[in-house]
Amino acid sequence: MAKVYNWQIGREMDYPYEEARPAKQFAMVMDTNKCIACQTCTVACKTTWTPGRGQEYMFWNNVETKPYGYYPLGWDVNILSRHGVQDLTHFPYQGKTLFDAAPQGERVMGYLPADLDYAHPNVGEDDSLGNMTQGAFLNMPHMQWMYYLPRICNHCTYPACLAACPRQSIYKRKEDGIVLLDQHRCRGYRECVKGCPYKKSFFNPITRVSEKCIGCYPAVENNRQTQCTITCIGKIRLQGFITTPDKAREDNPLDYLVHIAKIAKPLYPQFGLEPNVYYIPPVHVPPQYLYQMFGWGVEEAIATYRKAADDKKLLGTLLLFGATPEITHHYKIAGDTVFAYDEKGAEIVRVPLKEPIHVRKAYDETREVYRTNIT
Amino acid sequence: MNYLKSILAVIFTAIAILSAGPGNTADAGIYAVQIPGAGPIMDPTAEFWNKTPGFQVQMLPQTVTTPANPNPATKTLIVRAVYNGSWVGIRVEWEDPTQSDRIVVDEFGDQVAVEFPVEYKPDELPSPMMGNPGRRVNIWQWRAAFQRDIEQGEPGVRDLYPNTMVDVYPDEVLRVTDARAYTGALGVDNLVSHPHGSPVLEQIAEGFGTLTALPEDQDTNGRGFWRDGKWHVVFTHPLAPFSKNSAQFAAGGETVAAFAVWEGGQREVGARKAWSNWVPFRLSK
Hints:
A: alpha+beta; Alpha-Beta Plaits; three-stranded antiparallel beta sheet; B: 285 residues; alpha+beta; 13-stranded mixed beta sheet; 13 strands
């Protein structure tokens, strides 16, 4: 085991390989408050990458309804219960990572889902936390709550799938940090399926080897955001690259949201994989639940997010979501507009901080007609 | 700690081999008897097996590398060997209460493998655990799933999941070259995806994690069947194959063999296996 530094838990940890950060790290920010679970991302991913034989059940991208929806069934509660109660009260993290918790003879703590766990994606989505009492009315925060959690492979800095593979069939690309599974080298042992706590490595029963989300690398190589990002009708996603906190650039929107505004949080950072998909937590969900799922600082993140309308910089950054299919490397806010630039500094999009409002008179004198407001 | 365990395991195997059950004498090992004829020796039920002495191979838990298998299901194999004018045949039998040949995410197949040094030098034996750098081993791995593929056809999704509904597959609407991108490991000719005329994969290795199957090395054939809680598997291989990666055999010659076995029903796969130390392997004159 080598000692590597994981900034999300604020400490060194054990990992089977030396720390080797890529030149750039693929990352994504998702705003859970805007997701409506329309599954357009899921279908975009499915039709692009997994329509083949043996891939019928596979969703490299899925959207599940929390707290009781899952894909595969019970994935997070299964690994959380094996992981046991961990001390999340202090930062740096005092508890065990999944590498620390590995049983003897194993590289990482994991479990292999049952075949049927994949059979009913998101079953349980409508199960409620309890009955509404007579006379109940809506209060904030909600008495009853749910939210949507869209998920892809986290292209972790310390992937458990990569650590678990005894053949080094999984590798992390030097150029963009995308984690890929070599279809020629894999022998279908399913150690990665067992090892990945997010269950984003899948076994193909027709090819008899495993497959995983490829971070739309052909698109990313051409400076284009992933399919799940550019097809999102709710504009909840922003995909680009993230740096470590010590090298955070204020003009990189992902660095700004994660390291500077600190409103986007990793999924289960206590597992120790340094996942690179970051979530803006849902504002109406009990903090204890969010704390377990997104780690330290969720309440501060929500407080900052709630004030985004008054914060030009934050508002401008959030308006880059869904504004362009290209990857934003730099951006700035000038006046009432946010400008995004590609890697070479060429402008790719500009978005007004406030959408202009046009008020039309009910009676159009030129055409002598009344116009009704039908949007 | 694991290394120490492995050394102890090797010592214990040596003791186990030296003191193994009836028919096993100190320098016995596996003795391949000559039989008449030529060509592949494919029949696991042939009469000559009954006249050939069986050697009991002690199987050990794989605990040297991760992931480990501290308690493998199979404790012993019975091995017999014969050869004819051009091929060698090895029959392996072991007890396995479940016939596992359906492969889905949580179901694994039964497998057995026999290993030889590519170049046999008595003083420079490779590690019995998949060789080591510069000391290459030749591994023949029989797979129950491949055997089933050959006998019953390769399963489609409807065979594995009878109630599957699919609108359309890329290969039904695209040209072959365009649909290839959706075929994963099959599209890049990964040899573990389906059998290539034989239920046995011929492979080479120089240590943990290096196991490699090359299309040009596939000289091994075989056949296995399961009956009454027992697998009977025959491997057959040319005495003098063309491949430089293959073990060579000759009348009166000697080498060593090692074995590995996986009980699919116990989710044994890859490094989660039972292995044996080198066993002397000699051919009659």
